[in-house]
Structures are given as structure tokens and as C-alpha cells.
Amino acid sequence: METSYGEPSAPRRSRLFDYVDEGLPARPLDDRAPGPKPGVPAYPTPVFVPAHPRVVDATDGDGRAVRVPFIAYELFEHPTDGTVALAFTSLGRLVAVLGEAQPWAATSLGPLAEVMAEHEVTVRLDPVALTGAPHWQPASLAAYAEEMR
């Protein structure tokens, strides 16, 4: 990576740990793998992320048509941070913010933050509220499930 003047610049570091919402109850951390500062979950902490399955039509090595499944993380627009990914330390927190119909995937916090940083996306951990966020409704989830068959 270079600056506009041709000088090397430092790689972009994930801002994940800058966005732990204040006022959350303290959670005990795993003593074997503490986070980088007090109150921040450890790198391998499991998190629940808004996501849903997708498929792409492709051709295999023998020329046959195949459907290749993958998981797409949902991204959100934030008023000051631009595009963000959301991660929740419990399924209950995800449901409280995004609703019961929200599709999700479980992953580890550290690798999620690294992948998102590669795409210049900030991860917000345990957001307490969203304004204008697109919430999945049971009917839209059922229609999507039918489409994926």
C-alpha cells in the first residue's frame, strides 16, 4: 500500500475494538486468550452475524451445471462509519436488534474482523439499536427460502 506521494503506508487495521458499545454488562473473558483491552471479547469468541445462504450457478470440471452454495454476510449503512458488519455475542442480542426472522451465521470474531477489514468494512460489536435497518419479516424469509429451493 502506498500513499499518494509514493511512500509506503501502514495496512488498514480493523476498527472493531473501537466500536464495542458502552453500557453492556461485563462478560468474563477466557483467561487463556484475553482480548487486547479489558471488556473486549477474545479473538476466537463465537459471534452471531446477520447472513443468509446464496447460490451461484457454475460449471464443474466435467462441464456439468452445478449450484455452488455460499454464505453472504449482510452489511449495513451507518451514519458515521459508512458500511458496517454487525456481530452479536449472543443470539438473543441479534434477535433483540434485528428480529426473530433475521437469518444468521455463527463465526469467530477475529477472522470476521480480518475479512471485513480487507474490504474496508468496520465491524460493530453488540449494537444496541439500529434506525432504518432492513429487518427480515417471516413472510420475506419464507419467500426467500422458497426461492432458494
Helical stretch tally: 3
Low-confidence residue ranges: 1-35
Roughly what fraction of the amino acids lie in strands? 25-35%
Between the first and last Cα atoms, what is the distance in angstroms? 43 Å
Helix content: 10-25%
What is the approximate shape?
globular
Write down the secondary-structure element order.
Answer: EEEEHEHEH
Trace the largest sheet across and list its strands.
2-1-5
Structural class: alpha+beta
Summarize the biggest pleated sheet: 3 strands, antiparallel
Mean pLDDT over the residues: 76
What is the number of strand segments?
6
Q: What Rg is obtained from the alpha carbons, in whole angstroms?
A: 18 Å
Q: Can you walk me through this structure?
A:
The protein is α+β, with helices and mostly antiparallel strands and about 150 residues long. It has three helices and six strands. The strands form two sheets. Strands 2-1-5 form a three-stranded antiparallel β-sheet. β1 (about 45-60) and β2 (about 65-75) form a beta hairpin. The radius of gyration is 18 Å and the shape is globular. The model is unreliable at about 1-35 (pLDDT under 50).
How would you briefly describe this protein structure?
By secondary structure, the protein is α+β, with helices and mostly antiparallel strands. It has helices spanning 91-98, 109-118, 138-148; strands at 46-59, 65-73, 75-78, 82-87, 104-108, 122-125.
